[in-house]
Amino acid sequence: MIFLVDCNNFYVSCERLFRPELLLSPVIVLSNNDGCIISRSNEAKQLGLKMGEPVFKAKEIIKNNNVHVFSSNFELYGEISNRIMSQLKIFSNNLEVYSIDEAFLEINNEDYKNIGLNIVKNIKKTTGIPVSVGIAETKTLSKIAGNIAKKSLDNCFLIENNWMAKKILSCTPIKDVWGLGNQYTKFMINNGISTAESFMNMDRNWILNKLNINVLRTRDELHGIKCHKVSSCSKPKKSIRVSRSFRNDIDNYQHLEKYVSDFAFLACKKLRKENKRVKQLQVFILTNRFKQSHDSKYFGTMSYEFFVSTNNYIEIIKHSLILLRNIFKDGLSYKKAGVILNQLSPVDEYQSSFMMNNIKKNNDSLMDKIDYLNDKFGNNKIIFSSQNINEKSKISKKKLSPNYMNSWNNILNLDI
Fold it and tell me: What is the pTM of this model?
């Protein structure tokens, strides 16, 4: 059987872990730059606060109901997530980390319900984070079981047989079926398919003619046919993207150049952490669609292919700025920019050039020293002159909680 373990309101639960007095209070966590709501406690949901809603639209509700607001602390959430996944390995070696707060496990044991309850109990005891467990024959069915588990008293739900599955699917809206995006969901509804059961009963040939093989696999999974295996091997990334919306629109090229340099540096840092090289570089800039007139809306993007795949900070930043100069237009205000690294390959698997061997050895040594110094003495101790040297904090996080688990200075003091 497939077990889906899903952390309940994960980011909020992480914040409450160190602030237990907030256990029954409404709590929300915001995105980068404190822009939108990305996690809500059940109490916050009951107040009508919506996922993805800009926080300025919810100011009145937050103020009138004493809602506790936190900036996103992804370093803290990542550390807690790692501890949860380590605990899950006790129950099965066949573990697939699906996201920061979700994992699939495949377990062959007839006592499935008790195993699910033990998982809920163990994770709560060892990490303090509440989880829900959905159990079924396939990944798609386990996602539906997981949604039911969140509303059950013991936070665990097992779809035992086909009869039970059919009954549940008849009450499941098509939008709640895992693997169907918004476009497919709209298409289904427009064709009179409103529940998971009606989708399950669709003709296979019709799906292949109108949609695609992936939609057919989702249908088969609802029938209990395993199409998506639990894989403990993480899939290699196809690209690395670093982008950000700015707090204030930027109309100055020099200012924008510094941000793009930051994004290129961070993208390259992630590339090197994963022992990869990049062949294609892409840069984009975007105006504020809410503030610009129709004539001045602009999305500029351009790509560049390296002669030899690289993971060199200097090369990636240099060519990012060349691309930026080519797509930048005066007289516009830009709300967002980003750098994307495509066509990734392992660090030792790339087509070299005999003309660049000596240069490559010297540059590789320099890049290694930059990584070493930043790892040893802290992030951004060594940066490039084109970056935001005088602006250390580019992201607005006014309500950031301490980094309780990764900083000696932020360890909790207990008065006993």
Answer: 0.75
